[in-house]
Write a structure and sequence with these properties.
mainly alpha; about 375 residues
Length: about 375
């Protein structure tokens, strides 16, 4: 991959520079008689900062270093890419500190500068790792018998599930709220598994949609869109389990890249089907002694409220993806659809008497629609 540029890097770099300018210079109330650049630099000190502010300063510059390294390394090498990411982040941070000297509500400091540089360095190392692994993540041959329409549906459903309600909120309050869960990272194995399997399926969909030479860059754009989107959409937050799952995803994609398309589809279908079943089975097994199965009346069962839109999109993503992956193993689309519907029916029946069932009649309906979609659109 050395010598080949990443078209996504300059685009994302421009976005993240704009984000840093916004966060650093808000509320854009510059004093007319502010200090000169040299005066600001002379007055910089190691001001104390809260743990949250320190982490924000690091995280803000990680994407910048990542994109700089990804832009520079293909042409000038790894060390130059990492060094440029560090120097570029430090220079931008110094510029922001100088400009903050003219904003009454902002306090420039050496603490911010050092943390920004550290974030840029961490991002540059990450960008170099992405560059090294990128060519190995993509399948060695274009997927055979692919259906772009279904892969696009899978991708769109994932974006809806992760970014709903699509109400933009560019306030600093939303930014701080979004990154707060990263201050005290807690990883539940169920959440980690859900995100890991979900992002594996998204990667497979991207590889079906984009040309092999550009699929890694498209995948990077999708990751950035979800993480940035959750940061600046009302009510959403970043989740440490998702960030961890994405980090774990890269070496796994390298490992399965040599597997031919049918085998890869089979692996992902097994992983997705196992996760869907575990959602219903693990809680029941964990509390098996206290479970009393009592089937509700049909009217009560059908009257249970449908899940909110984001969860609804997530379930549609799972059932469309499972049917699509099963068909990708070589099964006839109708057989793949039947397996998905049968699995969902069994899971719904197993939870029919639960007080708060994970699966219900709405899942069966979605699975049937997913099966119809795949059988009609798959070529």
């Amino acid at each position: 991959m050395s010598g080949r540029t990443h078209f996504a890097a300059p685009l994302l770099l421009a976005i993240f520079v704009a984000l840093i300018l916004y966060v650093s210079l808000y509320p854009f109330q510059f004093g007319a008689d502010g200090p000169t650049a040299m005066e600001v630099l002379r007055e910089l000190s190691w001001a104390r900062a809260s743990r949250g502010d320190m982490l924000n300063n690091v995280l803000l510059y990680v994407p910048l270093g990542f994109c700089i390294a990804l832009s520079v390394e293909p042409r000038f090498g790894r060390l130059t890419g990492i060094a440029t990411g560090l120097v570029g982040g430090a220079l931008l941070s110094i510029t922001m500190e100088i400009m903050q000297g003219s904003i009454a509500t902002r306090v420039p400091s050496l603490t911010d500068l050092s943390l920004n540089a550290a974030g840029a360095l961490a991002g540059a190392i990450g960008g170099s790792a992405w560059h090294a692994l990128g060519v190995r993540m993509t399948p060695h041959a274009n997927p055979a018998g692919r259906s772009g329409a279904i892969a696009l549906v899978v991708l769109v459903l994932w974006l809806i599930a992760r970014l709903w309600p699509f109400v933009p909120d560019a306030s600093l309050r939303q930014l701080k709220r979004a990154v707060r869960p990263l201050f005290t990272p807690e990883v539940g194995w169920a959440d980690l598994a859900a995100f890991f399997v979900g992002w594996l399926v998204v990667a497979q969909a991207v590889f079906h949609l984009a040309r092999r030479q550009r699929s890694v860059d498209v995948f990077l754009i999708v990751i950035a869109a979800v993480l940035v989107g959750r940061t600046f959409t009302a009510g959403n937050t970043l989740e440490f389990a998702e960030v961890a799952a994405i980090a774990l995803l890269l070496p796994v994609l390298v490992l399965i890249s040599r597997v031919e398309d049918r085998g890869r589809s089979a692996l992902l279908a097994a992983a997705l089907g196992t996760w869907l079943a575990s959602v219903a089975l693990l809680p029941a097994l964990g509390g098996a002694r206290d479970v009393a199965v009592e089937l509700p009346a049909l009217g009560e069962f059908l009257g249970r409220n449908a899940p909110p839109p984001a969860e609804l999109a997530g379930r549609a993503f799972s059932y469309v993806a499972l049917t699509w992956l099963l068909a990708g193993t070589g099964l006839f689309p109708h057989v793949a659809a039947g397996i998905t519907v049968l699995l969902v029916v069994l899971l719904a029946l197993m939870q029919a008497g639960a007080a708060t069932p994970v699966y219900g009649w709405i899942d069966v309906v979605i699975a049937i629609i997913a099966g119809i979609l795949v059988t009609r659109w798959r070529k």
